[in-house]
Amino acid sequence: MSSKQFDVVVIGGGPGGYIAAIRAAQLDLNTACIDEWKNDKGGPAPGGTCTNVGCIPSKALLQSSEHYEHAAHHFADHGIGLKDLSIDVKKMLARKDAVVKQNNEGILYLFKKNKVSFFHGRGSFVKAAEGGWEVAVNGESLLARHVVVATGSNARALPGVPFDEDKVLSNDGALRIGGVPKTLGLIGAGVIGLEMGSVWRRLGAEVTVLEGLPTFLGAVDEQIAKEAHKAFVRQGLKIELAVKVGEVKVGKAGVSVAYTDAKGEARTLAVDKLVVSIGRVPNTTGLNAEAVGLKLDERGAIVVDAECRTSLPGVWAVGDVVRGPMLAHKAEEEGVAVAERIAGQHGHVNFNTIPWVIYTSPEIAWVGETEQQLKARGAAYKAGTFPFMANGRARALGDTTGMVKFLADAATDEILGVHIVGPMASELIAEAVVAMEFKASSEDIARICHAHPSLSEATKEAALAVDKRTLNF
Ligand code: FAD
Ligand code: NAI
């Protein structure tokens, strides 16, 4: 069998893989990308979890459901009256699917534009070959000097409760519920639990979230998490913490979940549908990693060093399949850095400035350390907060929940963390990321002119608050 030769073969076309492939091609490396995701017609659907059943479709549904909630509850404040408000779930899902398709097609276009050879199928290692590796796809053999593995992750199921995507749903099924369920249960009050819970609550479902840990959003700054929790409960999301989930029974009518509540009392939650969002597991299915001796850790993640080198020479791995946060932009950064390293450049990922965003309403976004982390490491720090209640633009928007919080080094004033809960936190956090990347002080932000009226003035004011000199609060 004749083999096609490449400088770089990327296995996986999610944000880690397709971006690595594009960057490698830009650097004049002869590059192929293999991805097996199929659309509903069996055709290629590159973009991975993020594009097909993650970031993009979830944000499409969050947008639709937010419009509905505004129309149902907030338009009246603006003097806008509506009769017979309704939601056509089929149409909402079709719009979401169209957004996904645009992104799939966009990636195929980018492959063409950048001369990346795309293979639609499953890529698997065959063996070490002269000067690199042999990878098989659809019965073809590809020879590569370098292989980048970007095979992503899959939803974790509860032990003994497989996803049927009808009653027991992963993120995939949660994005395809055909009509608003009367009752929806979610196991896990993490990012997916809160985003998906918000979508279906806004559309009228009675939503209960069962979380195993006693703390709500433990990775988030405590003050911010507390504020968000208050807002979610006010909206009608039922969140039970410190539960122990027991037997899950799936019947014709729905699902019943036996659990022990925070007080140790036995309870049962009966719901039409159950979303299990208890984290994700790295995916190496079908890669034939064992045949070439690619080292995995106890969680099944590919073991890599700080620069994404695996245990095998010339084999790299990026994104959800390796350590670190499971975020699309983290995967992309690693993909770019690996392509640059292969080309002999000095690719770099700063793990200290990776932003996190939870796209609920209010949105939650942060970068850097939380106050509890600073306390735990005994750091001397100053804190400044500014509430959106005191921001003119937020009042005009009618969205005044939340605050911006700055944490800065007590001696040098260098920004150590910025935490936001409130309107457009996902966009506002970018300024904080830039500031931290440039090692700015809170005074730097406080001295920069911010447009009026804008939500970003709350960022400036929170920076001023570090020095106890807010102007509008
Ligand atoms: P993936 O996106 O999982 O892509 C891996 C690709 O590899 C897939 O297409 C898969 O089919 C393919 N593949 C696997 N094995 C093979 C093989 N052997 N041969 C060929 N192809 C193969 N992150 C954010 O930053 N922001 C968000 O708003 C956000 N929202 C999310 C919402 C949900 C509901 C979920 C589930 C996740 C969300 N994420 C979000 C996380 C984000 O989707 C992941 O971090 C990101 O997709 C990881 O990218 P990746 O390239 O590592 O893997
Ligand atoms: P998660 O890690 O965010 O949350 C899982 C939650 O489930 C945790 O709070 C955990 O304590 C809880 N849990 C675990 N086992 C449990 C059990 N048996 N019973 C009850 N609770 C239990 O994971 P999630 O929500 O599944 O999302 C997976 C990943 O996808 C995220 O960590 C994130 O990396 C990514 N993602 C990112 C988004 C974004 O950036 N906006 C949106 C959605 C997902």
Please explain how this structure is put together:
- This protein has three domains: 221 residues, FAD/NAD(P)-binding domain (3-Layer(bba) Sandwich); 111 residues, FAD/NAD(P)-binding domain; 114 residues, 2-Layer Sandwich (Enolase-like, domain 1).
- Strands 1, 2, 3, 4, 5, 6 and 17 form a seven-stranded mixed beta sheet that branches.
- α1 packs parallel to α9, α3 packs antiparallel against α4 and α3 runs parallel beside α6.
- β21 and β22 form a beta hairpin.
- The termini are far apart.
- The longest helix is centred in the N-terminal third of the chain and has 25 residues.
- With 473 residues, it is α/β, with parallel strands linked by helices.
- Bound molecules: flavin-adenine dinucleotide (FAD) and 1,4-dihydronicotinamide adenine dinucleotide (NAI).
- 1,4-dihydronicotinamide adenine dinucleotide (NAI) binds next to α6 and β18.
Please specify the SSE layout and strand pairing.
Elements: E1 3-11, H1 15-26, E2 31-35, H2 48-53, H3 55-74, H4 89-113, E3 117-120, E4 123-129, E5 132-137, E6 140-149, E7 153-155, E8 168-169, H5 171-174, E9 183-187, H6 191-202, E10 206-210, H7 222-235, E11 238-240, E12 244-250, E13 255-260, E14 266-271, E15 273-276, E16 280-282, H8 289-292, E17 315-317, H9 328-342, E18 356-358, E19 363-368, H10 371-376, E20 381-387, H11 392-397, E21 403-409, E22 415-422, H12 425-437, H13 442-447, H14 456-466
Parallel strand pairs: 1-2, 1-6, 2-3, 6-17, 8-15, 9-10, 9-15, 10-11
Antiparallel strand pairs: 4-5, 5-6, 7-16, 12-13, 13-14, 18-19, 19-22, 20-21, 21-22
